[in-house]
Amino acid sequence: MKRQKRDKMTRAHSKGYQAGISGRSKENCPFQQNDARSQWLGGWREAVEDRHLGLSVK
C-alpha cells in the first residue's frame, strides 16, 4: 500500500513540474486530495523557479 501511495505522490509532483515548466497556471491543479494537491503544487513551484533561472526540460 505504501508503495502505491508513494508512486502516486511522485507522479503528482512530476505532473505539477511538467505543468509549471510549460507555463500553466497553478489553478489548473487536477488533484482534490490534500496530499496529492500539495505534491503537485510543490512540483509546480519547483518548475516555476527553474524557469526563472532559465532552465528547461530536455
Automatic annotation (TrEMBL):
Keyword line: Cytoplasm, Translation regulation
Alphabetical list of Gene3D superfamilies matching this protein: ribosome modulation factor like domain
Region (Disordered): 1-31
Keyword Nucleus belongs to the record: no
Gene Ontology biological process: regulation of translation
Keyword Cytoplasm applies: yes
GO cellular component, as recorded: cytoplasm
Domain of life the protein comes from: Bacteria
Pfam family, one: RMF
Principal location class: cytoplasm
Compositional bias of kind Basic residues: 1-14
Location in or out of the cell: Cytoplasm
Reported function: During stationary phase, converts 70S ribosomes to an inactive dimeric form (100S ribosomes).
NCBIfam families with a match to the protein in the record: PRK14563.1 (NF011162), Rmf_CrpP_fam (NF041886)
Family: Belongs to the ribosome modulation factor family.
Name this protein carries in UniProt: Ribosome modulation factor
Biological source species: Alteromonas marina
